[in-house]
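Moderator note: this is an archived Q&A kept for reference. The question asked for a predicted structure of one protein chain; the sequence and the answer are reproduced below.
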Amino acid sequence: MFLTARELSRLETPCVVIDVDRAKKNISALQAECGRRGVALRPHVKTHKMIPFARMQVQAGARGITACKVSEAEVMADGGLDDIFIAYPMVGDFRVRRAIALHRRIKRLILAVDSLEGARALNAAAEEAGVTLEVRLEVDTGARRTGSPRDEALSLALDIAHTMKHLRLTGIYTFKSLILDGRPTRDNALAGQEEGRLMGDTARALRNAGIDIRDVSAGSTPTGLTCADTGLVTEIRPGTYIFGDLMMVREHAAAPDEVAARIYATVVSTPGGQYAVIDGGTKTFPMDITPMTAPDYYPGYAAVVGRDDLHLLRMNEEHGMITCDGPELGLRVGQKLELMPIHVCPAVNLQNEVYLLENGALTKQKVDARGMLV
């Protein structure tokens, strides 16, 4: 258990508890590994969404931070973070206006483009505002999400560099996920090596065409270090490493004792002893994975710590139904359960505030950038 009986008694459930000492160790460990490899670390704040943890990362040596949306970046800027990369296509007049305002008030803002249409609109807005915006071109290296196809990246980069005077193209970036040769893989090392190689090839093509690419940014938590080992990227952007979760354990990116986050819930009913109902449902536990399916066969929407025979497989908004493989459920009304999140990033985003466990004390911390969608 994360908590002593006394600490457990203080919790209002359902809730997320973060072990701050474990999170600090995770921050320090990855920063040291990046230092040994000579690669910059620009962690993604979408995992924790909290200003104090972003400050810890920068104070430990991170170059700056990565955000997903402009609203998330605004929250971080309000907290004193002044070197921010928004790793999401800057499309939509409303986003662009806010990004330009943010550009005016922090030291460094890097924006993302992945299409000719988006780049032209961003350039026109920058021209009208009388500013020049630093941008990175996103390249699709296999995730098939956002990103310019690799065979189109050079043409798009040339268009930006030669015809868009209010955009300054300084780098390329990618999110590849665990993809190898275009297919899902469980091999972190090979996936990371391929990621580095593909980005290195793309950067070389752009440089040979006369485009001054300084930053080659890649690497999630599972692939970041092996990608850095290629020597072909200048920066990695992991996020989940700070807290960890069952997904990272299964993807060989964290040990169970390195996971710094837990979800706690209280058993509120045990109808007939056949199953237990806990006070957390879809408003507490993310549903972005499908339990009991290949390749990971996650045991439910969260894993009950210490009870591999228990499964959270059915939920309503405020109810979670816990079932048991065997004949003995062994849960009682009023009991508090400790669960490991499958994917910690959306789990944190479902909370207005989390508990921080530090030096034996529990305090509450607002999730500063919760729900920042724009």
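Archived answer notes: Residues 188-208 form the longest helix (21 residues).
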